[in-house]
Amino acid sequence: MSSVDECRRWFDPRFGLRTLLVMVTVAGIAVAWWTDRRALESRLIELESELAVIRKAAAPSWGVEQLLGPPDVSAPGDNGAAWASATQDGQAEWLEVTFDKRVKPTVLAIHETHCPGAVVKVTAFDRAGRETVAWQGADPTPATSMAGVSLIPMKINFATNRVKIYLDSPAVPGWNEIDAVELRDSAGGKQWATAAEASSTYGSSINSNRPQQFRFVY
């Protein structure tokens, strides 16, 4: 076959049409798959929030599982629908919360409902599990307030879905109760915690200081 015939074969309109049809079909399948996947992800997030409400209602009062999902404490004050540590002021405390999606965060919103003002540091974990300080300072909600939502600026340059909150509990008398934790990202997205662990919790049946944890199981 001559070089001219070879060129004509590659530029055959029938060959080009078949290739185009295949490409269009593959693209259509890819778009449909991506659309279905995004819809499924959105529905799973909705189900997580609905499940959080149900499980929080059945969970121990002041337990670590009370951190999950959207806030449900409607007024300031001591309330079993929020997390509380095992003792009022016995030790420094920490909370580790995980979210469904890994995102580039901008703000962590901590819903403090009783004796606020104890948050002193927030860290974030990368994919390798390395912990990095994202913020450190005085709690945006002062200890003189009855309650408040502390908006913590997350100053990190990597995506994360896991953060740790440190509280100087002895410095703020009383149980420093927290109802919910929300992660906001640079794309405008917002999500509530779907897993949590704490240094201690008043909700433990044996009032233990051992770390307590709760996680959704799909």
Beta-strand residue percentage: 25-35%
Main pleated sheet:
6 strands, antiparallel
Structural class: alpha+beta
- The rounded distance between the terminal residues' Cα atoms is 61 Å
Low-confidence stretches: 205-218
Please state the overall shape, judged from the principal axes of the Cα atoms. Answer: elongated
> What's the number of extended β-strand segments?
10
Whole-number mean pLDDT: 84
Order of SSEs: HHEEEEEEEEEE
Helix content: 10-25%
- Read across the widest sheet, the strand sequence of neighbours is 4-3-6-1-9-10
- Give the count of helical stretches: 2
Which key features would you list for this structure?
218 residues, four-stranded antiparallel sheet, 31% strand, alpha+beta, single chain
